[in-house]
Amino acid sequence: MRELKKIATNLKIKGYGNMNKNELVLAIQATAT
Asked: pTM of the predicted model, to two decimals?
């Protein structure tokens, strides 16, 4: 989970603090593609 938050920070995903793990993964995948 800490790794995911690090990635979210790097990708500048807003509001990831309020997301659960699945939402974070989806947001990261959406940004990464």
From this structure: 0.71
